[in-house]
Structure formats: C-alpha cells, structure tokens
Specification:
The protein is built from 8 helices and 22 strands. It is α+β, with helices and mostly antiparallel strands. The chain has 3 domains: 3-19 and 289-363, conserved putative lor/sdh protein from methanococcus maripaludis s2 fold, CATH 2.40.420.20; 25-35 and 192-281, Beta Barrel (Elongation Factor Tu (Ef-tu), domain 3), CATH 2.40.30.170; 39-188, OB fold (Dihydrolipoamide Acetyltransferase, E2P). The strands form 5 sheets. It has a 6-stranded antiparallel sheet, with helices on one face. It has a 6-stranded antiparallel barrel with strand order 3-12-15-14-13-16. A 4-stranded antiparallel sheet has the order 4-11-9-6, with no helix packed on it. Mean pLDDT is 86; it is low at 277-287.
Length: 369
C-alpha cells in the first residue's frame, strides 16, 4: 500500500509502548500516603464535653504537649474513686506494718497478721485498677501523681500528645459533646509515609511482595528506599489500574529521614521497581507486551489483531489483548493459527490506529481497492 493509498484510506499509524521488561526496572507513577504503622489514635473512653481546644489541626506537636481539655461526670467520679483507693491503700499499709511488728513481738496471732497482709494486697489492686483507668481516660503521669499527692480533683481532663508528630483529624470545637469511643484526633509521626504506585494489569503480573523500589530522594539521587508490600487484587475504579503498596524502609535512620524529608502526603512521584525474572514469576515472554491505543485493536471472532506497517503494506499480527483504560490496551503477539512461530512486534513497529475497518476487510478478502 502506497503513501497515497494510505492517505486516501485515512490510515494513520502510531508506535506501541513497550511494557515492563522482566528483570529490569519498571517505571511507575504513584503518590505518598500515611503509613498505618506511623499513626497513633486517641479516642474518648467516656462521653464528655470539649472544654478547650489547645492546638490547631495539622499543627506539629511534641510528645506530652497539651492538645485538648474535656469535662465529664465520669472523669470526676474516677478521680474520687482513685483518691479513696489511695487513702485506703495508705491505711492498709499502716495496719499491715503494725500487725507485722505485733506478730514478731508475739502479741497477736499469725492469722491476724495474714489478714492484714491480704487487705493490703486487695488495696494495692484497687489502687492500680483506678490508676490505670485514669490513664485510659487520657490522663498523663504528672496529672495522676499530682492528684495522688494533693487529693485535689480537677474539673477538666487535659489530653496530651502521645508522641511527637502532626495532629490529624482534630475537628472539635469548645462546647461540642463527644460520645464514648469517638475518635478525637490522631498523631502522625514524622516521616511515617508509604508509597502507593499504580500499575496496569499487565505490569502488575511482574510485581510481587519484597521487590526493591527505587526513587529520586530529596538529594536528587536515585536510591533504593523501599520494598513492595503487596499488589492489589482488583482494579481501581475509573483509572482501571492495580495499586501497589510500597514500604519505605529505614525511616528510623537519620540518613533515610533526610532522604524522605521533602515528601508530603498525597505528593505525586515516580518510582522504579526491580521486576523479577519470568522464570520466578511463571510468566513467559513478558518483554513482548506493549501498550497500544485501543483503536488499533480489531477483532475477528474471538481473535484480536493489530496491523503493523510493512514495506509493501500492512501485516495482520494476532495478539492477546487486554483493556487497560478507556483509550489504551495491552497486547502480546501470539503464534499464527496452525503455526508455532510467534509473530514479531517491537517498540519501533508502526501500527494502524485509524482506517482499521478497511484493513480488516482486506484481511478477510473483502477487497481493499
């Protein structure tokens, strides 16, 4: 077919894009998200009313920094019980000490000394129980010690940051009522990121958990900063891609923190996944897969074809085709019917993307004059 004939038939061509070559680096796009392992949640143990908000949402905080004050009847009651248990423990300790001395002097029977020791043990258990309940409410160690030392009940419970990081999800205002079990806020630890990459269905076949992932760090260097955590089992609605979760390794080291310090949640990036060999993946001839416009794929019955430009016209190449999204498909050449020899297709091939109806008719012997 001459250039004039192609122009008259409205045939235009496009080169296919090679997809994931096995054993080499596969380039993927993605974005950063919060790591589930780097977030600490604080919830309300009992129903309460917000008395005062001390820090704004998304602000940076230090461990132990006051964030929120709550008022609740339960908080006041738990303080009362703890003060009572603290007093009971003090009396039980005094009685046990006195009875121990009297028993050693032979003035009381051993049974009385054992009873006083048992009462001391029970008082200690009650004291520790109410102390732990105050901690569950969100009271800090210093606040509990002050209560134990003075016996003064506080009308408000001050919630402290359990760790250093950024406040997230704090949408409360003074005067708002919160139910028991409600999430009050989260603290996202510094550098607690993971990477979510997007891959086509064909690309995802070459990816498995544990593969090394490289990306350009904050110093502008391509570094191995993570490993694949897992490969999604279903397509993302809309984009029709497979999500790949990547753990950013070594975030506790100073060097890794410096390499990742410039990245933010939801920031886009690109990464390179070191794919496995076909033998390990059980996938043959992965390097013969290409991304092409869906318009270049035609079907005759159940068999899909693409038309590759040759010196004398176009050659129909039988392929396995899989839709990637609304405009693209992944194709892989397959042997011709009745032949064991696979047809060739490369990134330098020119595939027809328009006028394919005419080429399909010619292939079926309907005439192309």
């Amino acid at each position: 077919m001459s250039a004039d004939q192609m122009k008259a038939a409205g045939i235009q061509t496009s080169k296919p894009e090679a997809m994931g070559i096995a054993g080499e680096e596969l380039k993927l796009n993605g974005y950063f998200s919060h790591s589930r392992l780097g977030t600490v949640a604080v919830s309300s143990l009992e129903a309460a009313t917000v008395s005062e908000v001390l820090k704004e949402n998304l602000s940076s905080v230090k461990a132990g920094e006051p964030l929120l004050r709550l008022m609740s009847e339960a908080w006041f009651r738990y303080q009362q019980e703890h003060v009572q248990n603290r007093t009971a423990l003090s009396l039980a300790a005094q009685n046990a000490k006195r009875d121990q001395a009297l028993f050693e002097d032979g003035l009381i029977p051993q049974r009385r000394q054992i009873d006083s020791q048992g009462q001391l043990t029970m008082a200690q258990a009650s004291f520790q129980s109410t102390r732990q309940r105050l901690k569950l409410m969100g009271a800090g160690e210093s606040q509990i010690k002050q209560l134990e030392a003075t016996g003064n009940l506080s009308p408000t419970l001050t919630l402290l940051a359990p760790t250093a990081g950024n406040v997230s999800g704090l949408d409360l205002m003074a005067g708002k009522h919160v139910e028991a079990g409600k999430l009050l806020f989260q603290i996202v630890k510094p550098g607690a990121l993971e990477l979510v990459l997007t891959a086509s269905p064909s690309q995802s076949q070459a990816i498995q958990a544990g593969l090394l992932v490289k990306l350009k760090d904050c110093n502008g260097q391509i570094s191995a900063l993570g490993r694949v955590l897992g490969v999604g089992g279903q397509l993302t609605e809309g984009s029709q891609t497979i999500p790949i979760r990547v753990s950013l390794s070594g975030q506790n080291s100073s060097a890794a923190k410096q390499s990742l310090a410039c990245f933010k949640v939801n920031q886009f990036t690109e990464a390179f996944v070191q794919t496995s060999s076909p033998e390990k993946q059980g996938i043959a001839e992965l390097n013969s897969q290409f991304k092409v416009p869906s318009a270049s794929v035609v079907r005759v019955g159940k068999q899909a074809y693409v038309f590759a430009k040759k010196a004398s016209g176009f050659e129909a190449i039988a392929v396995e085709a899989q839709i990637l999204n609304t405009v693209s498909s992944a194709v892989k050449p397959v042997p011709k019917t009745g032949s064991t020899q696979q047809q060739t297709l490369s990134s330098s091939s020119e595939l027809a993307v328009s006028g394919t109806v005419l080429l399909k008719g010619a292939m079926q012997g309907l005439g192309a004059e």
